[in-house]
Amino acid sequence: xxxxxxxxxxxxxxxxxxxxxxxxxxxxxxxxxxxxxxxxxxxxxxxxxxxxxxxxxxxxxxxxxxxxxxxxxxxxxxxxxxxxxxxxxxxxxxxxxxxxxxxxxxxxxxxxxxxxxxxxxxxxxxxxxxxxxxxxxxxxxxxxxxxxxxxxxxxxxxxxxxxxxxxxxxxxxxxxxxxxxxxxxxxxxxxxxxxxxxxxxxxxxxxxxxxxxxxxxxxxxxxxxxxxxxxxxxxxxxxxxxxxxxxxxxxxxxxxxxxxxxxxxxxx
Length: 268
What we know:
Elements: H1 2-7, H2 12-23, E1 27-31, E2 41-45, E3 48-54, E4 70-74, E5 88-89, E6 96-97, E7 104-105, E8 112-114, H3 121-127, E9 139-140, E10 142-145, E11 148-151, H4 159-164, H5 189-196, H6 209-216, H7 222-225, E12 242-244, E13 256-258
């Protein structure tokens, strides 16, 4: 009986809680300078494998034109589940072509727009008809902000609307989308240039998530392990204060405060 209980699917309430707490938020998946613009990029978030590609800005042909330059879909063609990240990006309309049979998909909603090997024009029209979920790639909302490409890892009819109501984290120039004077995505115009010029380093560590978290909670290693970057072992200071300042929650995480570990950030 215990084994059967372990194999039971998660209750709807647990799945809803997972979606609300983890999927319904923005995640950075790739720095802009690391992303290829002439081919799709394979990325993952929350265990979901995605194909991310540059559409060239405003995408024509969709339900509504959008200035979001990046698109993301599940990395599996709905035809034969071939990885779409191995496909090609059309320079003409920014659609993504599957390498297996040439099906092409629109970025903003994942709709299939071309089936080259359809037996008749009528069959092609049916396969590419609006709302055909059998031939539609699962699309995810995307944003470009502060030098990063962000993905909202929820799909479905209401995902885009929910994503539009959630501001991205306040980083970069100190003004997040949806704040300040109307500009690019609601960002103050004078802040746009600074945010777009932000550069990030990307490092893929072959260690577990738990090890990465533990490492981040031990900042006093920085002057030694990262000496020669922006840190120096010539000026370490003892960390006299180190505490979790807010109660940890699944939804909001927690805030860690400490007194600094190097002369330049002492008593931070």
